[in-house]
Amino acid sequence: MRRYLLSLTAFYLLLTPSAAFAAEIGLGVTKDTFDLEILPGDSYEGNLTVFNRSKEVPLPVHIQLSLWNLKEDSEDIEFVKAEPALNAAKWFVFKEGKDFILDVARSRRVDFVIDPPKDVAPGAHFVMMRLQAVLPEHYFAEQGPRLIPEVGVLFFIKISPFTLEGEQGLYAAQILSFETQGGSPLPLLGTLIPQARASVFEDMVKSFAAKIRNTGLYHFKASGYVEMKNIFGITVARADIPARYLLPNRNRAFAIPVIKEGESFWKSISYIGPYKARMVLNIPGAAAPLTMEERFWVFPWKMLGGVLFAVIVLFLLRNRIWGAGKAL
Question: Using alpha carbons only, what angle is made at residue 160 by residues 250 and 215, rounded to the nearest 5 degrees?
Fold first, then answer.
């Protein structure tokens, strides 16, 4: 299978003209994501509006459909090919064709129908509708390498079974890892405190890194939370997992901040002690969520050392301070 790797971020940067040129030529759409559920034998009728951002140049527009997926263990998109029976790009029918001209600063509604084969098996399919400006060569004469103004619309298509029975097993996932992120670990103290079962940190852990694999048949959006509890079982911080798509047979990494930066001096000192962090991931239709825990210690030795030093100094100078106070 031939694959074309393209970064999600770089996609719009590479396929959009330079800043000066983009001010004159560009496309826009009213919707950039469709998340659909279609029963075998049914179809979906939809539309979106594309508009010409240029105030000077009419744009001939061509619509291209491409299958896509996330590259394994990456946030990058790759364009892929599939057998004709599984090629969801061929399910699209456009009522007025794939080519049209957008006048200056005008818009056009694009109506389409997604008509899967009646015998298609349940599963997830991913298509990108790529709206490309087809420009004459003279527009690129002074722009260096040819860059095609393009905007992409992502389609997440779920083909469902006729009944809901057994659909629960079509959603599944696994938390591959859940661990502290950043911080200042103190390995020596970690070996002296075996209960830590992880690093001992000089300051409070403010974020976590997780990796999740979708082991089911369908895509779904990540849903759940991370919470931290202290030695008394009191929740000191909680944050939602970012609502990002989990695609079948793909790993996805998450950075989950739970505490804002800029804690006060005294609050930072109060964080001393053991902590337990727990990640909870909801699975559609599942009786119980997935969970994973991470334990760590917080020991702000620099702050505590400073406070202890100040106390010792005050104790040694107590007579002088008392005498000076009496003299005043």
Answer: 20
Cα dihedral: 158, 161, 167, 173 (round 10): -30
Mind listing the pLDDT tens digit for each residue in 169-199?
689 999 999 999 865 555 555 455 554 445 7
Residue 299 one-letter amino acid? F
Residue bearing tokens 């599939």: 82
Position 200, amino acid: V
Q: How many CA atoms lie within 13 A of 270 on its CB side?
A: 6
Q: What is the pTM of this model?
A: 0.77
**CA 130 to each of CA 14, 28, 30, 50, 215: distance values in angstroms, whole numbers, following the listed order:** 14, 11, 14, 11, 29
d(CA 31, CA 106): 17
Q: Dihedral (C-alpha) 64, 70, 72, 73: value to the nearest 10 degrees?
A: 150
pLDDT for 305 beyond 80 = no
**Dihedral, CA of residue 92, residue 96, residue 101 and residue 106, to nearest 10:** -90
Q: Can you point out the beta strands (E) in 83-230? A: 92-94, 99-102, 107-114, 123-133, 150-159, 173-181, 200-201, 207-214, 220-221, 224-229
CA distances from 108 to 48, 59, 94, 201 (A): 8, 12, 13, 57
Mean pLDDT of 234-246: 94
